[in-house]
């Protein structure tokens, strides 16, 4: 098949430190237009109403997360993005620490209420799961050009002062509301969830309700150590 012959595109992206503590890095054009189109295509047929894990680790539907989502099979294109996400974190970050990439789609009215990506319940951070989620990337894969809402809000962060950030964050909101990244296709926000081995509360964030249009995002989560093979994505 074409899988053997596919080579990852040479893709340059920019990086910008948004915050040193907690570490948050803004990444314009993290994925290529072709990758974005591919992700849109492969996610459509398997999207289902999102589930979240409760205190016992049991997955279930919740009013706090009304989007649709799906795990992505690690095909040749997804693999390039996985490799990019690993290289970004230092070459020593093993592939075994990655959860399957997760696409998330929001239609009008859909949202994800404030939450952290790190877990506080031990059932979700066992060694089979590779411990807690060390880092997160949230990638905006696609968004309608006239989208209203659908930003990613970090209510506990300090808003930056320099106006050049207004290209990426919503500068209309008040300073004490924290920071809201706008859903700009192909851009990504990366952050560290843990600080000194504990979940960092300042990484609290929400997918704000989409008020007009559609948004497709993607989570790339890296655990503290290797996940058991049954929780990793199948390599095609
Ligand atoms: O939709 C967003 O902007 C954020 C989604 C999110 O935080 C998540 O899926 O964990
Ligand atoms: Fe999240």
TrEMBL record:
Keywords (A to Z) from UniProt: Dioxygenase, Iron, Metal-binding, Oxidoreductase, Signal
An annotated Gene Ontology molecular function: L-ascorbic acid binding
InterPro entries in the cross-refs: Oxoglu/Fe-dep_dioxygenase_dom (IPR005123), P4HA-like (IPR045054), Pro_4_hyd_alph (IPR006620), Pro_4_hyd_alph_FE2OG_OXY (IPR044862)
Keyword Electron transport set for record: no
Cofactor names: L-ascorbate
Limits of the Fe2OG dioxygenase domain: 97-224
PROSITE patterns assigned to the protein according to its UniProt record, in alphabetical order: FE2OG_OXY (PS51471)
GO cellular component: endoplasmic reticulum
Protein name (record): Fe2OG dioxygenase domain-containing protein
Protein source organism: Lojkania enalia
